[in-house]
Every structure is written in C-alpha cells, then in structure tokens.
Automatic annotation (TrEMBL):
One annotated GO biological process: xenobiotic detoxification by transmembrane export across the plasma membrane
MF terms (GO), sorted A to Z: transmembrane transporter activity
Keyword Amino-acid biosynthesis (UniProt): no
Protein name, entry field: Guanidinium exporter
Length: 105
C-alpha cells in the first residue's frame, strides 16, 4: 500500500508542477486551483507512504518521479531541449530511484 501511495504521490507531483507552469505565477485561476489541489493530494499520499517507508527512501523516490515526469512533460509538450547532458542527468535520477528502491528491502 505504501508503494502505491508513493507512486500516486509522485504522479501528482508531475501534475502540480505542470499546472504551476501553466498558472503563470498563479495568475490563472483554473491552473492555480489544479496546482494547489494536486499539491495537497500529493503531500497527503506522501505522508501516508511515510508511515511505513523510511524518510530518505520515500522523499527521494517522490521527488525523482516528479523530476523525471516534469522533464518528460517539458520535452514532450513544452518544446524543451533534449541534450546529451540533460539525458544523462535524467538517467542518473532514474538510476538513483532504482537504487533507492532496491536498498529499501
């Protein structure tokens, strides 16, 4: 259950980060509302996951899912650059997530 909550918390982090971009500094009400709602839901699910997962594991995986998801949204939908250095950085984040999961037992 904790891992499922953590996965959905990470996916909601992608939602709120993307919605925040579209809120244009919280000047667009719909995107701002989506940002705040997704943040609250994401933090709540993270807190649920942290009941049984170690802080370092839960937080690292949560931020990693959000970072990689935001990276993919940026490239796929917002026209952000795909460079070797950015791809290497993303690969290192994914590697860290996998190692953190494997080390949690």
């Amino acid at each position: 259950m904790a891992w499922t909550a953590l996965l959905f918390a990470g996916l909601l982090e992608i939602v709120w980060a993307t919605a925040m971009k579209f809120s244009h500094g919280f000047t667009r009400p719909l995107a701002t509302t989506l940002t705040i709602t997704a943040m609250i839901a994401s933090f709540t699910l993270l807190a649920v996951a942290m009941r049984s997962l170690p802080l370092g594991t839960a937080y690292t995986i949560w931020t990693g899912i959000g970072a990689i998801g935001a990276f993919m949204i940026g490239i796929g939908f917002l026209g952000e650059a795909i460079t070797p250095m950015r791809l290497l950085a993303a690969l290192l984040i994914v590697s860290g997530i996998v190692l953190m999961k494997l080390s949690s037992g």
